[in-house]
Amino acid sequence: MKIIDMRSDTITLPTEEMRQAMYEAELGDDVYGEDPTVNRLEELAAHVMGKKAALFTPSGTMANLIAVLTHTRLGDEILVGSEAHMFWYEVGGASALGGVVIRTVPNDQDGRIDPGAFEQAIRPKNIHYPQTTLLCLENTHNRCGGAVLTPEYTSAITQLAHQHGLRVHLDGARIFNAAVALDMPASELARLVDSVCFCISKGLSAPVGSLLCGTQEFVEKARKWRKMVGGGMRQAGVIAAAGIVALQKMVSRLVEDHVSARHLAYGLACIPGVTVHPEKVQTNIVNFESPATISGTGFIQRMDAHGVRFTERGGRRVRAVHSPHGQCCGHRRSPGAH
Ligand SMILES: Cc1ncc(COP(=O)(O)O)c(C=O)c1O
Hints:
Layout: E1 4-5, H1 16-24, H2 36-49, E2 53-57, H3 60-71, E3 77-81, H4 85-88, H5 93-96, E4 101-105, H6 115-121, E5 132-138, H7 151-163, E6 167-171, H8 175-182, H9 186-189, E7 195-199, E8 210-214, H10 216-228, H11 237-249, H12 254-269, E9 275-276, E10 285-289, H13 296-305, E11 308-309, E12 311-312, E13 317-321
Parallel strand pairs: 1-11, 3-4, 3-5, 5-6, 6-7
Antiparallel strand pairs: 2-8, 7-8, 9-10, 10-13, 12-13
Bound molecules: pyridoxal-5'-phosphate (PLP).
Pyridoxal-5'-phosphate binds at residues 10, 59-61, 64, 85, 138, 142, 171, 173, 199, 201, 210.
């Protein structure tokens, strides 16, 4: 059966060019800083993000965790959007391993945090309170349907945070989707933030990895935290090589995913009972609601039986993500097959 897999853009597979680059990659021990391919990827990442340095991590979750560990001290409070990936899907790592209080501030439907609500959430100096030291943003915003934060918004709220002595970390797992949607360099979207991470393993199709970018001093500290949480990889150039191809060759094609996502949204809008807002679709994610006659789970199971895969988001909510390998022809394994 032909499978159309829209569960996530993390299902993407490395391109032929990536596989070739991986095969040919010059390698060394990256914990000693001696893997030339990792070093090249880190330099390239810092350059495209307009930061001084970058650190290669095995995942976006680890990059976000390391950012929190590096920016905060035990007992601090961090502010994140109520719909943030860091809050929902990272196993509470910032609290469990970073020892910080995670406090949420409401996200609007476009993935933004209201600057007034943000300012109010910052704790005043008081012996009873933890100190608020970090604001985390997300661009594009996963749970808010791939919504894009503009550079104006990000710069304004970052300046506000800085006025209050907070640092700002940007979870830019899909920042290149935002950059392509706005037709501007990704560095513009991260200009004032203190750190930014992005994933090469989503729409950019590399098999593994994320990059955490910031000042030289930040990345030096982050490198030590990476070692502590077990993210020091040895001949990691074998995967970094794919990341270089991802950054050099795969960014511009993200527009194809955005066009497909919008196409899907307009198609869904024609189905009686489906609730969707196609005009809101800015990048590769489409959130919609299944008809009232069927639960989200029931809808997903029925679609799966026809070879179309979505992710359940609770209640009748469903998420579809467009990516290069989502529409490939696959063969469904029969039950019990390996
Ligand atoms: C916005 C956002 N941040 C972080 C992550 C975590 O990335 P990873 O799956 O590489 O840990 C994801 C993954 O989907 C994400 O969507």
